[in-house]
Design the sequence.
């Protein structure tokens, strides 16, 4: 009885996005390259620079 209740609670409601419906990222689009590659690299570099500045003070 408990196993059936847990299985019912674990189901996704209708109309919600399902993780299985996702498409892979298309890197032929320049926007995706900027958002998923360039911006994270810039954010990491800025963080490292900021931490070095904080360490000098």
Sequence:
């Amino acid at each position: 009885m408990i196993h059936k209740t847990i299985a019912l609670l674990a189901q996704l409601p209708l109309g919600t996005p399902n993780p299985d419906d996702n498409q892979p990222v298309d890197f032929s689009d320049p926007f995706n390259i900027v958002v998923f590659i360039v911006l994270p690299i810039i954010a990491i570099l800025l963080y490292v620079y900021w931490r070095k500045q904080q360490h000098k003070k």
Notes: The mean pLDDT is 85. Residues 28-57 form one domain.
